Amino acid sequence: MPEPLLEVKDLRVHFPTEDGLVKAVDGVSFSLQPGETLGVVGESGSGKSVTFLTVMGLITSSQAVIEGEVIFQGQDLLKLPKDEMRNIRGSKISMIFQDPMTSLHPFYKVGYQIAEAIRTHQDVGKKEAHDQSVEMLRRVGIPKPEERADQYPHEFSGGMRQRAMIAMALSLNPDMLIADEPTTALDVTVQAQILDLVDRLRAEFNASVVIITHDLGVVAEHCDDIQVMYAGKIVEFGDRRDIYYGSHHPYTWGLLRSISRLDSASKERLQPIKGLPPSLIYVPPGCAFHPRCPYVFDRCRTEIPRLLPTDGHHASACHLTLADKERIFQGEVVVRR
Amino acid sequence: MGRYLIRRALFLVLVLVIVSLLTFTIFFKLPAGDPARRVAGRVITPETLVAIRHNLGLDKPLWVQYGRFAKGLVPWPGLFLNKQVYFNYANNVPVSEEIYRRLPVTITLAIGASIAWLLIGLPIGIVSAIRRRSLFDRAGMLFALFGVSAPIFWLAYVMLYIFWFKFQQWFGWSLPGSGLPTGESLMQSVLRGRFLLPWFALALSFAAFYTRMVRGNLIETMSEDYIRTARAKGLAERRVVFRHGLRAALTPVVTMFGLDLATLLGGALITETVFNLPGIGQYTYNSVTSSNFPGIMGVTVLASFFIVVANLVVDIVYAFLDPRVRYT
Prior knowledge:
Chain A is an alpha/beta fold. Chain A has helices at residues 48-56, 82-88, 100-103, 110-121, 126-139, 145-149, 158-170, 188-205, 216-222, 240-246, 250-257, 298-302, 322-333; strands spanning 6-17, 20-32, 37-41, 65-72, 75-76, 93-96, 176-180, 208-213, 225-230, 233-239, 308-311, 314-316.
């Protein structure tokens, strides 16, 4: 097993607020291999964005209480001084965000913004940085990149803006790209284009990619491994087949049952997960999902389930037995092949 | 961009036309009584009244009267504040001469004060926004509260009292407080510090507004998504704040600055009166108290002109700063 690119160990990120301590991330551990694509799925408030903002160093100890380790290429990023973290941010680990319209500065030309990223980390002149940014725009599939580089963000369409953001993120050839809801603000057809672009670029740039999303459809095609998060913890981890064809957690089942499928009978109703996402200040005792779980029993209310592997790679945090999980999945969740 | 400029310029003309109509109506047609007597002011002789009626065209149709009045708003030599309409019969001198003589003093006051309030207000606002809730921030906002609440007539007198009167008592020396001696040139007056107290009094008032505005704008800007992107790129925090944050936060401040400066050019009435500076503000005050009606008309036209032009200039500058605006 090669050395993982990123290893997160028992990360906790707690925000002190007037209303109480918000436990946004509460004991998250996972690793990311080089060249892999990881999908992180969960509702709003599950802690998926906060986890990676902390990895990037965009959430710091001045805003939250952070515990645990984030080991990237052998270094614990949480212990790095700010300057060194800044060197890594943008050049070794890059992040793109949800709404490309507001994520680009409206007053500066797109080419300038990409060149700025390049010149921050590399000692190159303005002209060379500009040329490189034009080249990046070309690589992400923007036609007439020389003209486009001299335009402002509001002159780009939504899909093009997200491509420009990707160009900016990849301009320094990072080892890891984190995409936080990259397609949520885009039309469906554009979504597909952007995800295919990310796939292609991952191969070209030899980077690992993390796609954070609430959309199971997005992860199905583009991710090797999938991590399902709920209330600040990982509740299930596995590869594509594990999750879609044999998942082991009631929350994942709820998610699968609530998406519409082309091959389901048209009269079949979508089943939402009953209840509401929990407060992150007053997290339910035991398993955080237990108030909403159709299979809850006594142990769930008192004992926090640990994320335990069920077969090799595949792990879930649920007190149900493996036999029960498989039985329920086959009986009630079955995703037709 | 060209179309944007043409539209703004046409709008300027339209506003000037409306201003002229309104002022004409207010000055000539609304008040009861004889307009000729009003214009004559303190010195009313039969010959003066005849001359006035002739000059203003009071025997001619309304649109002729309006035309002569409106010509005074056109920024062209011979037309602007023309002496046919804008003439001070009490002193037997055209209003334009009285105003132009006083303009340099007001310009000096306005520019000096505006530089001072930017130098005071901007840094305090910026640091307060970056170090929110710190001691500095709270002190800064207290200062702003004071400056915003203290009326200029109170503030000016207090400053005069402390820095001119009391300093003299305590130290045997003080800042100059009152007026510009006729012998001195304007440059000499400035160098002798005669504008220091007036500048500071005005600056304090405005700085307070700007501090709050800059602080609010910067706080709002720093929570925008593009700031998060800038940090994600690995930019140094200083660059994020100044190049990304401030650049967006200061745009409305530039707009405000242009308009405030224009208003001040129309005459800082109270400041000039308190510190006895012979500028447009003092002229306005004197005109009102001595019923110099043509004088009042003249400063109204001048002030409106400055503000309308300032609006155009500010719109142009805004288009330079914010590329999204160029296409509207």
